[in-house]
Amino acid sequence: MIRRREVLTLLGAAGVAWPVGARAQHGERARRVGILLPVTDSDAEGQQRVSAFVRALQQLGWSLGKNVRIDYRLSGNKVETMRASAAELVTLGPDVILALSSAATALLLEATRAIPIVFTGVADPVAEGYVESLSRPGGNASGFTVYEYSIGEKWLELLKEIAPRVTRVAALRETVIGADLFATIQTLAPSMGLEIRAVDVRDADETERALTTFAQAQNGGVIATGGPRQSAQRDLITALAIRHRLPAIYNARFFVTAGGLISYGSDLIDQYRQAAGYIDRILKGDRLRRSFISRTILTSQKIRGPVASHRWRSNSDRMASLCAVNLMLYSPGASNQAGDVW
What we know:
- The chain is an alpha/beta fold.
- Helices cover 37% and strands 19% of the residues.
- It contains twelve helices and twelve strands.
- Helix 3 (79-92) crosses helix 4.
């Protein structure tokens, strides 16, 4: 069960202070929101995501401790802990639950088919059985996909762009992401002169052994496709890539913050702002069945500099000029909003 200190740690990043478990004032019934986070209380990325959600909810007129209360459960990546936390949240009877990963969504759906669930960071909610379709989710779950499988082609292209000599690629994967993304990468790789090797991410020791062994041969590179274990091991993975001089591309910008070279993927923080809008509608009486799954509308590419510190590049001058800028790439119809540019 989450402790008071953990709640205040999360909300402190948002500049929010509120009495935990406070009741609504003046007889108004406080609506209740549950959040299941597969992170620890020291995870800065998790704090930023929750802070973005809380701020967005406040901007929509919800006042913590007055007309809404939030129950948090932090579970880390341990499945049994996450399952127990999901059951605890359901027992509290919230009006809606925010699930911050595919694994959290799956366990919440095991625990309830009645309470509305809004998920973020899910790769393929249809294939994973969370919804019936993207346009008509059905059931009690809806939310945001983290990317489309076609992103695999972009990762391969960018890896060849930054390191033309790469011929072997270690693709980090997790079962929670599904097989289709890896299949896309594996199908496209030969046309680019690349050989793909799957590295299943489990515990940190296994990850270190696998990447160290892979790095013993020349012309290797890495693609981190994303998942809760990769997120938890991001410091290790980026450190191994640098140590073994493996050019690597990551699915999320927090890998770059941890020391990685380049990321290309959806703006995960923005998904939590948007999730607040979904939850606002539910708290105001909208039925979840009327909603639809939001595909990623904003993808972002961030390149870490300076390039000189990464010695594997054969064309350092060209890469130095490329790394001087952070590029924002938008899908059709997407608009640049304040706070989205890094």
